[in-house]
Amino acid sequence: MVICTMSISLDIPRPRLGPVDIALGITVALLWGMGIVFAKAAIAHFPPILLMALRFTVTAFALVWFVRPPVAHLRALFVIALISAALQYSLTYTGLKGLDAGAAALIVQLEVPFLTLIGVLALKEKPGWRKWAGIALAFFGVYQITGEPRIADASASVLLVIGGAATWAIGQAMIRNLKDIDGLTVTAWVAVMAAPQLFVMSMIVETGHWAAIQSANWIVWGAVLYLGLVMTALGYGIWYTLVRRNPVSQVAPFLLLLPIFTVIGGGAFLGESLSTQVLIGGAIVLAGVGLILLERPPRLRAPAQ
Questions:
Q1: How many CB atoms lie within 10 A of CB 114?
Q2: pLDDT digits 0-9 by tens, 150-176
Q3: 3-state SS, residue 9
Q4: Mean pLDDT for the chain?
Q5: What are the sequence ranges of the domains in the chain?
Q6: Most buried in the list 235, 262, 280, 282, measured by CB within 10 Å?
Q7: C-alpha span between 113 and 111 (Å, rounded)
Q8: For residue 53, how many other CB atoms are within 10 A of its CB?
Q9: CA 223, 285, 31 angle in degrees (round to 5)?
Q10: Exposed/middle/buried for 249, CB within 10 Å: 0-12, 13-18, 19+?
Q11: If DSSP codes are grouped into helix, strand and coil, which group holds residue 134?
């Protein structure tokens, strides 16, 4: 997922989102949340890095025809693809293999506090007390989740997902430094470059590629198409439409729905059942992320007399 941040003056009233944009925001959270569910199902057949390679191959073929090659940015996009796609998705989805989809989706929310911390360290941003409190709450919530016995036994998977969240934040900080390039072009060309990177990484650390491809049924290939076309191409297309027409601070909170949809989908399609401890920890995580994403309403100044 992608979250951009920007500073917004509190002196300027902001229009509320219309019903269409609210519906689009909920749709993005649904598409991305269910994507984790379908990925979890597909990982039972495909090695996770190979699955991500196939996903980005589908996305690249779907989008690259509609954007011009960003010649001036190709070197930067290659590095961004390596960090924010190839490395990040390898870590996150390899970790997903050992966790329930709902638990992984809650831990993945650490992307937001990590991005805030990267902004402090690399971009010299100065978050207020609300964001610092949100960061502390989010990490405390993940600590609570990892105390659940089943998840404690999968500590390596938890660390992989946390590593993926941190790597994603680094990649997003790099994307924010790009100039004169639109979001669709970034999505398309990151996919073009990430696909071969992921194939190489999969060949190095995974086995059974050809057997998995040969034996995959239409349900597994349907999951691949969902990840490439719906979750990535369509999902990011809707997301960039929203952030072009609205302040990011108004649309980013919809992403708090993502793990909720994943938890529901994991229960409905995968038969997952999260323990009370994980649900409480997840609520704490979402409260912390909410403090980071949700801004206080603007104070209206009295008109000059």
A1: 23
A2: 999 999 999 999 999 999 889 888 887
A3: coil
A4: 88
A5: 19-293
A6: 262
A7: 6
A8: 26
A9: 25
A10: middle
A11: helix
Biggest CA-to-CA distance, the chain: 77
As given in the structure block, the two tokens for residue 50 are 């190979």
Residues in contact with 13: Cβ distance below 8 Å, sequence separation at least 6, in sequence order = 298, 300
Q: Which amino acid is at 92?
A: T
Sign of torsion, CA 74 78 80 81? positive
Rg (CA), the chain: 19
Residue 210 amino acid letter: W
Gap between the Cα atoms of 298 and 284, Å rounded: 26
Burial of 127 (0-12, 13-18, 19+ CB in 10 A): middle
Q: Which amino acid, one-letter code, is at 31?
A: L
> Residues with Cβ < 8 Å from 1, sequence gap 6 or more?
32, 111, 255, 258
CB 146 within 8 A of CB 152: yes
User: How far are the Cα atoms of 110, 132, 164, 169 from residue 120, in angstroms, in the given order?
Assistant: 16, 11, 19, 12
